[in-house]
Amino acid sequence: MHEYAITESILEIIQTEATRAGAIHVDEVTVVIGELTSFVDDSIRFYFDELAQGTVAEGASLKFQKLEARATCNSCGADFRPRNAFFSCPECRSAVFELRQGQELFIESIDVSQAEPTDIREN
Prior knowledge:
Blueprint: H1 2-21, E1 23-34, H2 41-51, E2 61-67, E3 70-73, E4 79-80, E5 97-101, E6 105-114
Parallel strand pairs: 1-2
Antiparallel strand pairs: 1-6, 3-4, 3-5
Helix pairs in contact: 1-2
């Protein structure tokens, strides 16, 4: 159910940025989700479709990109991809590491339609 609150925040950001850009409609939004998060794409999409009704983002296409997890071992310096929640360095088996990516959630892009500028001429 935490996807509901996250989706509310995503929609708020979209609306703010669309207003700033002078958009009349949001066409597509790309959201990046780290593979170690517990966010479910389909749940976010479901809530987005419901919450966006009556907003500039109603009917917008929501795309997701997964960001793979990456870690660096603090003992031997190996760069590796953690495969599950309980992992260690594949080189030296140390459990002391820095998780560099995989826990993110952010909006990568917002594609919008803007009103055509009107040609105002003075007589």
